[in-house]
Amino acid sequence: MTNPSGDSPVSLEVIEGTFDLARQGRTGPLGEMIDAGVPIDLRNPRGDTLLIVSTYAEQEHTAADLIRRGAELDAVNGNGQTAISCAVFRKNETLLRMLLDAGADQNAGGLSATAIADQFGLADMRTILDEYAAR
């Protein structure tokens, strides 16, 4: 099977295993997979990236490592979600600030991070987004 993003041939088993590592916060083994040639911006059949999945799963160390390694910050999955929108939805201030500090675009995706904060009444997340937008 080819990686859904078309970057390289990667089997579905490798894709699933790699995403499990990101979801479980297994930063070391995930890094080894990337070092061995698994694309850092690999996508699963839903269009998620490793950064989106690790952010949604609130795996801060894994997300930080992926950011350090150069993961695409503004990748959009099949539902229009980005890592930053996942951080807002999960109400994770640490991940939100980490992504914003790294340069993630709070307006990327089908619904911007601000729109998600407003839709779900996440005033604390909206305050952080506004703080960064004012910079």
TrEMBL record:
Keywords: ANK repeat
InterPro entries in UniProt: Ankyrin_rpt, Ankyrin_rpt-contain_sf
ANK repeats: 79-111
Repeat as UniProt keyword: no
Keyword Cell inner membrane recorded: no
SUPFAM superfamilies to which the protein is assigned, alphabetical: Ankyrin repeat
Transmembrane annotation, as ranges: none
Matches recorded under Gene3D superfamilies: Ankyrin repeat-containing domain
Protein name, UniProt field: Uncharacterized protein
Species this chain originates from: Microbacterium aerolatum
